[in-house]
């Protein structure tokens, strides 16, 4: 394999797959690894700090809204890690994998999934929501008042603080995996086991099918205005417009970036500018301004890209690969 060629920035080889990466609100970068460690590095640090958290692989990572990071592992534990305190287990499920973790700053809640359940944590209180099949994806609505869980044959919507309820079911045949709520709260979109997205307009549960992908969609990201949803799943980045009442229905998607031989694996959107980052299966990471064609390559020959994230101020891009290569690149 060729040596990775990083245009600018700092890089490391962690010798374990990078499962995910993100930043907390202070600009500390975190890389979750398949060996159960979380590598964190603050803007002023010279080298990453190693946090040994899980017995087995880390499966999920999220920045915590109060600072630090949440990780979920195949050891059934949810752990909070910060730069100032020792790692702290906040939940555990014996014999289960924690495949998703997420938080809501608006309502000070944490949620995670394990097998057929999604659990909402509010301090020491826990509410467990059970589904007919594996809870494959989870997200809060923009106000943190409801939670969406993707599963087989659709998605379930729950009120986060109701004690006795039946979920609102959004039905569409097939296996639904990832899930995202539009920033204006009007639409819900899932990735599917087949090469497609599915969406619902929430005021009337109208269906929206976004198909035609040559491979499965593994990553999505909303632009900074919440009007476009950009996805992986093709040799270029695909973008769907969610303006107007009907969102993407009846519209052709936008295509961005250079045509590559291998598929785009991961996408990320800049928090301050109209810019997309994408990483491909053949080891390239590139940037492009939305509506202004012309890609700028940050990395070549890096190995299969598995993780991308912009810092909160947009000054850096964190990236990671299946081979354990990780970098912080200035934008």
Strand order of the largest sheet: 15-16-17-18-19-20
Number of strands: 31
Q: Compute the number of helices.
A: 0
User: Beta-sheet strand percentage?
Assistant: over 45%
Rg computed from alpha carbons, rounded to a whole number of angstroms:
19 Å
Kindly, what is the distance between the CA atoms of the first and last residues, rounded to a whole number of angstroms? 26 Å
The amount of helix comes to under 10%
Largest sheet: 6 strands, antiparallel
Overall shape: globular
Uncertain residue ranges: none
Q: Please state the average pLDDT score.
A: 96
Please state the structural category: mainly beta
Which features does this protein show?
mainly beta; five-stranded antiparallel sheet; 31 strands; globular; 0% helix; 331 residues; six-stranded antiparallel sheet
Q: How would you portray this structure in words?
A:
By secondary structure, the chain is an all-beta fold. It contains no helices and 31 strands. The strands form 7 sheets. It has a 6-stranded antiparallel beta sheet with strand order 15-16-17-18-19-20, with no helix packed on it. A 5-stranded antiparallel beta sheet has the order 1-28-27-26-25, with no helix packed on it. A 4-stranded antiparallel beta sheet has the order 2-31-30-29, with no helix packed on it. β8 and β9 form a beta hairpin. The chain is globular and about 55 Å long.
